[in-house]
Amino acid sequence: MHFKYAHEIKDLLIKKEVSAEEVVKSSIERIKEVDGKIDAFLEVFEEDAIENAKSVDKKIANGEEVGALAGIPMAIKDNICLKNQKTTCASKILENFTSPYDATVVRKLKESDAIIIGRLNMDEFAMGSSTENSSIKKTKNPYDLERVPGGSSGGSAASVAAGEVYFSLGSDTGGSIRQPASLCGVVGFKPTYGRVSRYGLVAFASSLDQIGPFTRDVEDCALVLNTICGKDNLDSTSANVDVEDFTTYLNKDIKGIRVGLPKEYFGEGIDEGVKREVEKAVEALKLLGAEVKEISLPMSKYSLPVYYILSSSEASSNLARFDGIRYGYRADEFEDLVDLYVKSRSIGFGSEVKRRIMLGTYALSSGYYDAYYKKALKVKRLIIEEFKRAFEEVDLIVSPTSPSVAFKFGEKADDPLKMYLSDVCTVPVNIAGLPAVSMPVGLSEGLPVGLQIIGNYFQEGKILSLASSIEKIVNFNARPLI
Amino acid sequence: MSVDKKQVDYVAKLARLEFSEDEKEKFVQDFNNILQFVEQLKEVDTENVEISITNYAAFNVLREDKIEKSMDREDALLNAPDKENGYFKVPKVVE
Question: Is domain B5-43 annotated with CATH 1.10.20?
Answer without folding.
Answer: yes
